[in-house]
Automatic annotation (TrEMBL):
Family (UniProt): Belongs to the ComF/GntX family.
Protein name as catalogued: Phosphoribosyltransferase domain-containing protein
Matches recorded under InterPro entries: ComF/GntX_DNA_util-trans (IPR051910), DZR_2 (IPR044005), PRTase-like (IPR029057), PRTase_dom (IPR000836)
Pfam families reported for this sequence: DZR_2 (PF18912), Pribosyltran (PF00156)
All copies of domain Phosphoribosyltransferase, residue ranges: 162-245
Stretches assigned to the Double zinc ribbon domain: 20-70
Superkingdom of this protein's organism: Bacteria
Naturally occurring in which organism (per UniProt): Candidatus Falkowbacteria bacterium CG10_big_fil_rev_8_21_14_0_10_43_10
Amino acid sequence: MSDNNLDYIRKIKSAINFFTDIIFPIECLGCGKEGKWICERCASAIPINRNSYCLGCKTKTDFGEFCDQCESQYNLSGVFIASDYDNELIKKTIKALKYRFVYGISRELSRLLILFMDRQRAKIKGNESLPRVITGFSNAVAMPVPLHKKRQKWRGFNQAEKLAAEFAKHFRLELNTEDLRRVVSTKSQAKLSEAERKKNLIDSLAWRGAGLAGRNIIIVDDVTTTGSTLEECAKVLKRAGAGEVWGLVVAKG
């Protein structure tokens, strides 16, 4: 499909969304109350993860870091998972953002990331085993998982970039949305096995910026399933000189 056709489709979708919003006011995806995509009452009922685990073997860990047995297999230091994809409201909200192109919902999801990270940072007191990305939080760099330019043009926005921007703004972190790039338009990961996901991502990402000189990085996305995309990002960032690289997602699918 040509870029002109993609741009035309995106404009049609944007027009449909615009008129839909006029005819049908914004309603809470949980209870239907008008005014917000997630009302205060429904937002307060969304679970925030308190128990973290190694994404490799599911062993409980303090922050979502990889355990001693798994850490050597990954470039990622760990993955922060804010909530639970089994929660129907979380699932509905993420799908509305990704597939109905309702990018205003990103503000609601970013609040979950912020609340979750506030709780993680509160663990600083009396805990000497904290990850460097937490102890040196103010110097971390937030980056979204990148979309290929064709995919982003078709969708009209990168949902991970929306989340990363809100997160970085709240915590006054440096935000880099330009230098980590998806240089190959890959197949959708949704229906692939873990092995197929890893193969699908090989050489699909590249770093186009200056050396990272040990900077700690937080890679933001909406959902992770196997962690393959986050791991591929971490591999590229480590080659560019990054220190710790952590994933931060709304939920694990």
